[in-house]
Structure formats: structure tokens, C-alpha cells
Amino acid sequence: MTFGFIDFAKEVLEASDRPLSLEEMWAAGCKRGLDGKLGSSGKTPVRTVKGDYLL
Question: How far is it, in rounded angstroms, from Cα 31 to Cα 19?
């Protein structure tokens, strides 16, 4: 199974003790090294997370 942006958001939010903005979510995921699991090289990953998350 591919690790996608929804998986990224889910893992970050499950580890958080509070709600996060998309920017905070992205920063927390990068700090945990999750961005390397995505296999995406887009220039606006926060917008991609937002697009996937809101669908």
C-alpha cells in the first residue's frame, strides 16, 4: 500500500494532543520524517494535503 497525504495527516494527527493547522501538520510530519515516505516532489505539499484532506 502506498503512503499518501491522507496517511501522512492521519499519522500526524494521531500523534498530536491538539488540533493542528495544515501548516503545523506539515511541519510536525516533516519533523517526524514522514515527508520522505510520500514519494512526492511537489512544490506546494501543504496545498496537496489540504486538497486531499478536504475531499
Answer: 17
pLDDT digits (tens, 9 = 90+) for 19-29: 998 889 889 99
Domain range annotation of the chain: 5-54
C-alpha span between 40 and 38 (Å, rounded): 5
Please calculate the CA angle 4-7-13 and round it to the nearest 5 degrees.
140
What length does the chain have?
Answer: 55
Copy the grid coordinates of residue 13. Answer: 494527527
Write the DSSP symbol of residue 18.
Answer: S
- Is pTM, for the whole model, over 0.90? no
Q: DSSP state, 42? A: -
